[in-house]
Amino acid sequence: MSFTVAIDGPAAAGKGTISRAVAAHFGFAHLDTGLLYRAVGARMLRGEDPVGAAEGLTQEDLADPDALRGPDVAQAASKVAVIPEVRAALVDYQRAFARRAGGAVLDGRDIGTVICPEAEAKLFVTASAEVRAARRHSELTERGIAADYADVLSDVRERDARDANRAVAPLLPAEDAAIVDTSDLSIEAAVARAVAEIRARR
Ligand code: C5P
């Protein structure tokens, strides 16, 4: 039996952490859909046409997620994500993943609204831009990537604006999504909230 959990929200709101914890808790498979757009962005940075890159995406492009985590790839990802043909090329893979037996958690921007409007549980995980920038900044610092807080904050705001204002699949909570604002929540409290919301829908 399939059970789909859709987790959407802006960059660095805690989606990834919550999604991994929720998937482990329920024994579901997890897909970070941002990686798909990052992989397309990385291929664009290497000179490829983004639509061709999205259509020809393979498991090999996703094999080294750490290589896709940098800010340049993130910016490239948010640029290719506005192209309707890029989004369309990635739909089937995400929907097939969502319907796998045993349950699936997909996190992204448009999972509850466009990819899986029939998902059994939908969460919209958010936090203030300042809190998200502070988290992303310490994450980068921990990984040894030098970054300035002000730059990270403007990067977060720039990506928010692009994600919210694009014509196709803008970042919006689904009408039936539970909103989880993690600005003032610890990781443990945020995960507990998410687990409780999902359990209520099972
Ligand atoms: O979540 P992450 O930061 O890895 O996503 C990178 C970029 O990919 C986002 O800024 C967003 O523009 C795009 N994205 C998207 N739809 C998704 C996941 C990511 O448009 N489902």
UniProtKB/TrEMBL annotation:
Alphabetized UniProt keyword annotations: ATP-binding, Cytoplasm, Kinase, Nucleotide-binding, Transferase
Binding annotation for ATP: 9-17
Keyword Kinase found: yes
A single GO molecular function term of this UniProt record: ATP binding
Subcellular location, record wording: Cytoplasm
Gene Ontology biological-process entries: pyrimidine nucleotide metabolic process
SUPFAM superfamilies recorded: P-loop containing nucleoside triphosphate hydrolases (SSF52540)
Family statement drawn from the similarity comment of this UniProt entry: Belongs to the cytidylate kinase family. Type 1 subfamily.
Entry protein name: Cytidylate kinase
Protein species of origin: Roseicyclus elongatus DSM 19469
Lineage summary: Bacteria, Pseudomonadati, Pseudomonadota, Alphaproteobacteria, Rhodobacterales
